[in-house]
Amino acid sequence: MRLAASIWSEVLAEVQDYRLDATEPLAAVADACRQIAAGIVRAREAEALDARGESLSDEDVSWLDSRLEELLGTGPLERFLRRDDVENIWLFGPRLGVLGLTGGRQEQVAEPLFADAEEMIGFVAHLAVTHGQTGRRFDASSPLLDLRLRSGERVFAAMEVCGTPYLTVRCHRHRVVRLEDLAAGGSLSADAAAFLAAAVRPPAPANVLICGALGSGKTTLLRALLGEIGAHEVVCTLEQTFELFLDETHPYTFAAETREPNSDGEGEITMDELARRSLRSGADRVIVGELRGPEAATFLSACGTGSDGSMATIHASSPRQALARLVRYCMASGLAGAQSALIQEAAEVIHLVVHMGADPRTGFRGVRQITEVLGAPGDRFETHDIYARRRRTGPLERHSGPRSPELAERLAEGGVDVTAWPQDA
Predict the structure, then answer these.
(1) Rounded to an integer, what distance in angstroms lies between the CA atom of residue 357 and that of residue 367?
(2) Does 146 or 261 have the greater pLDDT score?
(3) How far apart are CA 263 and CA 266, in angstroms?
(4) Closest Cα to residue 81, out of 6, 149, 13?
(5) In terms of Cα–Cα distance, which of 406, 397, 401 is closest to 423?
(6) Which of 16, 162, 193, 398 could, after both became Cys, cross-link 183 (CB 3.0–4.6 A)?
(7) Is the pLDDT of residue 425 over 60?
């Protein structure tokens, strides 16, 4: 192992020097680094063999390969990230891992990925510094980590505040998804897909709130709805961590994400600040990846001041709860006004609430309700289900036509005439 360690020291120095000066894409840099490493290994092993009759064992070669992959890629996680069926990776300490697969299936990782907690923490710390969009710390002074890898995966890790180190990686397998893809997979009906497309399509798009539990498919549906925006529209997307990737397909996108403070506690940019400043971007639409707090007031303001077609997701178990939570988040800003006024404003500017649901027994994720907001008489939201699943596992069916003339007009301009739809199914 002494020979392998000596070779690794040289490989590490050469590879790091090359990476610092490289300007090529990440994949090309990684391939070049592997070639550099292979050349050094061949040369040093030949020298050792001639001088001392010493060569690398299979274990030495495997060790060198694993160290290089940890440096260039995501180490022991790399093989899981390359699988098309892996959507989530959970590590509960160094020896217990679980994969979340497509269709709601799970698969336990057969072998421990790290020797001990210290090795796992060191790996995550290396990941935070070298593989994030912005370098971040993971140590006793910064025991919580939330970042996006350069390859797009979202990472959350914790230490010190929990009994054993924890790591989760959320993979984005389908960055570009269309409503027809979701309809083909059963997440919603073709009829409902056409309805939603018309609702968010220019020239008079509706403002839409997407609600549901964690993992119910809110972000996936939002990506699909964004596929209906006009090619000429300027769109502002605001996220805690990039997950929408609209800028990859729509050129007129101002995509912004929050930033954590540096080691000196400076440089933080919160979602609330991003949202407030976004109103100056001149965007036709404002899209918030997830409403969690005071930024909801800015989103509501955008919906009511010309940014038609604005959309956001929010954690809630029903359309009514989503609207109530939106108001509560607005009140948290301290600048939004009285609760009664906020309820009336939300009822006026939010046109549709789409409720997503997931069935853990089958792994199914899909739309449970498409609900229009009609008003708020007596400060209580009045809603009406246009589409709903009559049974938990049943199909998504049209319940009745929209009752709001304004929504019907917007739909007509988007390409769906609902005037002939019955009001009761």
Answers:
(1) 6
(2) 146
(3) 7
(4) 149
(5) 401
(6) 193
(7) no
- Give the sheet arrangement for strand 311-315, strand by strand: 253-257, 235-239, 285-291, 311-315, 208-212, 352-359, 364-375, 382-389, 396-398
User: Architecture of 179-414 per CATH?
Assistant: 3-Layer(aba) Sandwich (3.40)
Highest CATH level, class, for 78-170: alpha beta
Structure tokens at 28: 């090309």
Give the number of residues written for the chain.
Answer: 425
d(CA 239, CA 275): 9
86, 100 Cβ separation under 8 angstroms: yes
pLDDT recorded at residue 25: 63
- Give the pair of three-digit tokens for residue 56: 């690398």
**Which residues touch 9 (CB under 8 Å, ≥6 apart)?**
none
pLDDT of residue 39 exceeding 80, the answer is: yes
321-374 pLDDT, tens per residue?
999 999 999 988 775 568 899 999 999 999 999 999 987 677 678 999 999 999
CA nearest neighbour of 244 among 300, 236, 364: 236
Residues carrying CATH 3.30.450.370, the chain: 78-170
Report which DSSP code applies to 247: G
Residue 374: exposure state from Cβ atoms within 10 A (0-12, 13-18, ≥19): middle
Residues 6+ apart with CB under 8 A from 351: 199, 206, 207, 208, 372, 373, 404, 406, 407, 410
Mean pLDDT, residues 252-258 taken together: 91
